[in-house]
Amino acid sequence: MNETRCPVCGEPAEIRQIAKAFGRGNDLLVIEDIPMIVCRTGHEQYIAAER
User: What InterPro entries has UniProt attached to this entry (predicted)?
Assistant: First the structure.
């Protein structure tokens, strides 16, 4: 995994590929492989611009 810094607290963070689900039932949409910055300290997630 790539290592970077949290844009809020400056602590170490990782760039992870995650999936997000929107809606439910027949209206469910799942988007996979979204690059997110995940803070190791506060566990906050931020969408990474280009990586």
Answer: Znf_MqsA-type
